[in-house]
Write a structure and sequence with these properties.
Elements (H helix, E strand, L loop, with lengths): L2 H8 L7 H7 L23 E3 L14 H5 L5 E7 L11 E9 L8 H5 L5 E3 L14 E2 L1 H4 L65 H4 L4 H4 L15 H42 L1
Antiparallel strand pairs: 1-4, 2-3, 3-5
The structure holds iron/sulfur cluster (SF4) (2 copies).
Length: 278
Amino acid sequence: MGVGDEMKDQLSFLGGFKLTLQHMTRPRVTTMYPEEKKPKQPRQHGRHVLNRYEDGMEKCIGCELCAGVCPADCIYVRGLDNPPDHPVSPGERYGYVYEINYLRCIHCDLCVEACPTEAITESKLFEFSFTNRSDAIYTKAELLVDDDGMPQKLPWEDWREGDDMMTSGWMRATSPSGSAAYEGEVQWSGELGYGTRAPEGGQSGRRNDELTGTKSLRETLEAHLLTEDIPLAHRGMQGRVWRARIGAARHKKKMEATRTRMKELRAARKAAKAQGQA
Ligand code: SF4
Ligand code: SF4
């Protein structure tokens, strides 16, 4: 073995740092949870809400279709005739009792599909926990949106910006019956606090991804696609530049969100301390 080979052999450990060095220049993927959270997908199914019409009336008519279709048998509804002098819903009846057992719910959204009045939809909130079985059963008072149309933010739930937006937006993608001819056609009523929700983009050109938060699966899952399925602009050096740009913009957004959240936490702690001293 020559001196050169010996040197090469002795310095071979440097090869071990190659991967580390490669990753040092890439955007950071670690998320400082729970201060910082990754954006939720537009079709994510979270905690339910019972909606109101724009005039404040409840959308639920107590028909029990949601309870009938639920595969986990976790919805309990009882309807009652609307009082003629102060009706709760525009129908003959309204949902007098409405409960969802979250120890059973599998967030399949079949209840959302079955509902004839779009009364029940799912928000994006999934961070909530219970310490006993009865707390896991959400009652109508907890599920029904407030007088401004906003979901009830219960003390044990961790709501973040956007969790109330695009609730069950997927069901509006190709309504009705999945026909592409109806894409982009609004065929549902407005909601108190939000107005008429925008239709989610589907397969046609009639879409507004910015408005609806729709993100193409190809963009989300590009790392898992075969090279021939990746758009030309996202391959090779061009693709690397594109990814670096996207990564930098995402990183900047995350840093800003973390900073704002930390600032809020510090202010809350300071206020609590000041309150304790007073
Ligand atoms: S999301 Fe599925 S499991 Fe949960 S309440 Fe609705 S139908 Fe039942
Ligand atoms: S949420 Fe919809 S499906 Fe369920 S009882 Fe109310 S109106 Fe009927």
